[in-house]
Write a structure and sequence with these properties.
The complex is a heterodimer of chains A (260) and B (228).
Chain A: H1 3-89, H2 98-124, H3 127-148, E1 152-158, H4 166-187, E2 191-198, E3 202-209, H5 216-221, H6 226-237, E4 241-247, E5 251-259
Helix pairs in contact in A: 1-2, 3-4, 4-6
Chain B: H1 2-27, H2 39-54, H3 58-62, H4 71-97, H5 101-125, H6 132-155, H7 166-193, H8 197-222
The chains are: A alpha+beta (260), B mainly alpha (228).
Chain lengths: 260, 228
């Protein structure tokens, strides 16, 4: 074999070796990057699941606490107030004595306290959902609001009733309670309308008020918006779509679309 | 011309060897560097030292005859022992980077077999000819370890940046070198036995070229920034 031919062969072999090496390194790096990407996706999925489980546990604890407080109010505090009222009613006081009026006032205050506590206990308890369903629970809530005489409340149901999981109904009720709390505390509204629409595939809850409204983008960026974030978290837990629309001085509308 | 390419490839291999040794000495012993890097400057120092005393091409150029009239045979003896040294150095490195306990046990077993094989073939054929079968055995053992490393790399749950992982570049260099010379030494054994020394010498240039690339990959491994 000629010298020149040998040299050319060597050069070709060396070039091929370099190409193979570069190709090998490139393949390894690409495959490893692909594996990294899959690993990151899996990790994100695990994290998302963990966050969801954590949120679910937090909401369950919250719900348990509500039930506990409701029971305590009903079983203990309510009983003590009733007993106090009874004691006052059975006091032997002479008619037209100065203390009579005071006792009557005290009894009336205790009666009001008892009513408030009963309403509070009912709002915290989710037994109404188990006993009467979401529509009954909302009716009760509306009745309580109307008793307060702070706002006018209109409640409407559209469509035929469709069965919804009790857990979902409890969450919807809590969202509604939170929304109404926000209306009463912040919006200065005089009128609230609650619309419950049973569609073929979804339940739509719409809460509208004629209050002062707010800047949704500004509020979203603020830290102290636990009411709104609570509503969104509960909506996410039941795979509902949560939408809020508000214009300054034109009121606010909250829509929750819950799949069955 | 083939002599020129042989000389050129030899010279390039020495230069990259010296450069890798120099950079290895600076980088490998820095605080925070992995312990498995420590062995490489020693390996590179021994490589260059052997080239100075035993390389049949370098010696006539610089008129170095460390072993005077026995230079050629002594050179072969030194290269044979260098094969053993290289095998054990690479195996020591892999014992530190491979995680599988069973592979580590297998490595020790293979090293024992290698030592036995080398001793036996040296006794049978003598040390004064290059022990090609030992080189091929070394290639086989170390290539298996390289493949194990790559397999474990993909199996690791924790993500690592390969560009900053010294072991990746070192193993790639070793794998490339041994995978390149494995078919070469198979062919060269045949060429030598048939007296084709010119072609043999030319093909040895490929060995030198592969060494250059390996040294460059070693340099990349040494200079990886491992600090987070």
């Amino acid at each position: 074999m000629q010298d020149k031919e040998i040299v050319i062969s060597i050069v070709i072999i060396c070039t091929l070796l370099i190409i193979i090496l570069i190709g090998f390194i490139a393949v390894i790096l690409l495959l490893y990057q692909k594996k990294q990407n899959l690993f990151n996706i899996k990790l994100e999925g695990i994290k998302a699941n963990y966050d969801k489980e954590l949120l679910k546990t937090q909401l369950e604890i919250q719900e348990y606490t509500f039930q506990y407080i409701s029971r305590e109010i009903h079983d203990n505090i309510g009983q003590f107030i009733s007993l106090a009222k009874l004691h006052l009613n059975t006091l032997e006081i002479k008619e037209n004595a100065p203390a009579t009026q005071r006792v009557d006032d005290a009894v009336e205050l205790l009666t009001r306290a008892l009513d408030e506590l009963r309403d509070l206990s009912r709002s915290l308890s989710s037994e109404i959902i188990s006993n009467g369903g979401l529509t009954k629970a909302i009716e009760q809530l509306v009745a309580q609001l109307q008793k307060l005489s702070i706002v006018e409340v209109a409640y409407e149901i559209r469509g035929d009733y469709q069965f919804l999981d009790e857990q979902k109904e409890i969450f919807i009720l809590r969202i509604l309670q939170e929304a109404i709390n926000n209306v009463i505390r912040h919006s200065r509204a005089t009128h609230i309308s609650i619309l419950l629409t049973y569609e073929n595939n979804n339940l739509i809850l719409t809460i509208r008020d004629d209050g002062i409204g707010f800047n949704t983008i500004l509020i979203r960026d603020q830290k102290n918006t636990s009411g709104l974030s609570n509503m969104k978290k509960r909506a996410n837990m039941i795979n509902a779509v949560f939408h809020i629309e508000s214009t300054i001085q034109s009121g606010t509308e909250i829509t929750i679309v819950v799949p069955y | 011309m083939t002599t020129h390419i042989y000389f050129l490839s030899n010279a390039t291999a020495w230069i990259t060897n010296l450069l890798a040794l120099f950079l290895g000495t600076i980088y490998c012993y820095r605080k925070g560097q992995p312990v498995y890097l420590w062995i490489f400057p020693l390996y590179l120092f021994v490589s260059i030292a052997i080239e100075i005393v035993a390389n049949p091409f370098l010696i006539p150029i610089f008129n170095l005859l460390a072993f005077s009239s026995h230079q050629a045979q002594t050179g072969d003896v030194i290269y044979n022992f260098y094969t053993v040294f290289e095998t054990f150095v690479f195996a020591a490195f892999f014992l530190q980077v491979i995680r599988s306990t069973s592979m580590k046990h297998l490595t020790i077993l293979l090293l024992s077999l290698f030592a036995f094989f080398f001793t036996r073939s040296s006794l049978v054929n003598g040390l004064y000819i290059i022990n090609d079968p030992a080189i091929l055995f070394e290639c086989a053992i170390i290539i298996i370890l390289c493949l194990t490393f790559f397999k474990e790399l993909f199996a690791r749950p924790e993500p690592i940046d390969l560009f900053k992982e010294p072991s990746f570049w070192l193993v790639t260099g070793i794998f490339f070198y041994l995978a390149a010379i494995f078919p070469l030494f198979l062919l060269m054994a045949w060429l030598r036995s048939h007296g084709q020394y010119k072609i043999y010498e030319s093909l040895y240039s490929i060995n030198n070229f592969a060494l250059c690339v390996t040294h460059l990959l070693f340099i990349k491994g040494f200079t990886c920034r491992t600090k987070k």
